[in-house]
Structure prediction request, 265 residues.
Amino acid sequence: MPQPLPEGFQTEGNWIVLQVDTYRRDEIEKRERSDLWFTDGQRWLGPIPLREDEAWSLQRAFWRRQGEAFELCATLKTRSICIPSPPGISFSAPEPSSIRAEACRNGQAICVTGPDGATREFPLPADLIEDWQALPLCVSRDRWVIVEVFARIEGEEAEPVPMVYRLDMARGLYERVSGDEEARAERIRAFRRHGILPEWISWAYDPERLEPEMCSPDTRFYLIHFGGGMGDSTDSVWILRIEDGALYPLPGPEARWVWPEREGQ
Prediction:
């Protein structure tokens, strides 16, 4: 069973479904099995074994009421899997944010509209405004906006990789939270020194699949998938604590938040 996440990354009512891979000790590139686990950062429910053709096929996850209790479900390409939630656990639909964020000025700024209808504009930093454009992904606690910043240059053989920024609306400042490659490598070395990371996480390359659905239901956290990069490197998933921009690696290559069931799901 995976270890509980550190205090501060235990997601307190936000559940995650995570693919966890097991590798042969004598051959790090040889994956022996893949399992699904549900976790709130403290409790782990599983394992649910995956067939070989089901690995990397996690599409969505949801909770639903089953009689007097709840169950947690994950949808793969070939089937849906449901398990009972722990006794005493209840779920409720998240409250919608009172703030709306959207790209404006041709992607050179984020415009935020409050509950009173007033709109504030937050231009990108000066060093980004010419060649980059912004797309809001998540409004957190009516103060922060997680923003994807990607190149507006077209026709290049190798476009610059996207970046993840945290906009602090109270201060009007953008802060890069995904870091550069060396910063991510140092985080990995530090976590490995403490015996936290599985051996297969050797690097965290470029951010991938930056989607609004990667924001936790209560908007306090955001999941960032980092690509495996070259060769046979494996993807990794990191959880971003939006309040302070701290990142922590999850012990698996694929993850989704558990949301309320939608009609027809």
